Amino acid sequence: MLRHEFQPGRLIAGLFLILAAVLYAGDAGGAWETPWFVVIPVVTGGLCLAGSVSAVTGLIRRHKRSDTRGAQAKSPT
Question: What residues form the membrane-spanning segments (predicted)?
Fold first, then answer.
């Protein structure tokens, strides 16, 4: 039994924010040098990608929901 729906947009947003945190942590730890402006495209690109994936997921779920309602309305039971 599922407790909630899988939301791939939130997964993608979380992955990109974790990537930004790893970039800063590596810079703070001295593993590499990360310029301050590198994180801006990582975060904004990740949020844009997450928004796009969420929109597509919502459209797919709405389409599937309308298909199941249409099939129930057409059945003779």
Answer: 35-60
Asked whether the beta carbons of 16 and 64 are under 8 A apart, the reply is no
The dihedral through the CA atoms of 28, 32, 38, 39 has a sign that is: negative
Closest by CA to 33, choosing from 42, 23, 44, 21, is 23
- What is this structure's pTM? 0.80
> Per-residue pLDDT tens for 23-68?
999 999 999 999 999 999 999 999 999 999 999 999 999 998 887 7
Q: How distant, in Å, are the alpha carbons of 2, 8, 35, 61 from that of 45?
A: 30, 15, 17, 24
